[in-house]
Amino acid sequence: MKQLFNEMKSPFGKRDDIVQNSPGRTDLICDRRPVTILMTGTIAPPSGMPGTRRNDPRIRQREYLDAFSFYLNIDDKFVDRLIFLQNSNNSLKEFTDLAAASNTQKQINLIRCPSEYSAEMGKGYGEFMMIDYGIRVLRDSGIFDNSSIFWKITGRLRLINISEMISTSPEPYDLYCDLRYLPFIKDTLGGNSWMELRAFSFSLDFYSSVLENQYERGFVLEKEFFKIVLEQMKQERWKIVPRFRRQPVIQGVSGYSNVSYSSPKYRVKNAIRTAARRLAPSLWV
Predict the structure, then answer these.
(1) pTM of the model
(2) Spatial distance between the Cα atoms of 82 and 36, rounded to a whole number of angstroms
(3) pLDDT in tens, 193-220
(4) Which CATH class is domain 4-279?
(5) Over the stretch 69-79, which tens digit does the pLDDT of each residue have?
(6) Could you state, in order of their start, the residue ranges of all structural domains in the chain?
(7) In sequence order, which residues have a C-beta less than 8 Å from that of residue 86 and are 6 or more positions away?
């Protein structure tokens, strides 16, 4: 197994960075440039974090490791770099060991991010402060150009059909996401006037120009980012695709409800959204 260890240089200090490899799916065709997956992680949430019921660091670390292993094994033709951002002070040795034991040709970067924020600011604040930091490090590294495509994924979750979502994504785009807006049902199926932030895809240029430094806009960033994206769509500067072509299939446990995404409640929501996406794609369910 070929291994290459390196260090990502940035003005923010030393990074854990490792490059290694793994097999992956071969049943789908991908005729486009591979993407970078950007996993976000908070192994030990700040005490008193509102809206977070899954707080045990041991459980969370295992979930991050399981997801990290899953994305390591995505076929390299879809994903050629995996980045894990982490903003608590837990050791990342198990992640480097897991990468070292794999066969992947992916570039792997583990980046420690600052964690100096008050729990009352909320998990969205902490997550997107972390992403901003990571994006600055990556931008300063010179590895990426403005057109580089990232898929941001909440790090404890496994986006089971990520290969299909990548292979069926529109091309080109600056933002590929899922917006929800159905005034007559309000929040019956979950957040309304809402941008799905567990998973979305963007170009480096779009994030740097539009989404960076927006984490202080409000407590529920899904609603704030929805407003930002709608405004950008009106301006028509960017290529924004506001609905996924495929329904995301997520495995894991919600940090907000502490309920599995495989539970009947979430399976019903997923079935409704899958049907609407196929039969009435103009409905932002």
Answers:
(1) 0.88
(2) 6
(3) 999 999 999 999 999 999 999 999 999 9
(4) alpha beta
(5) 999 999 999 99
(6) 4-279
(7) 41, 42, 43, 92, 110, 111, 112, 113
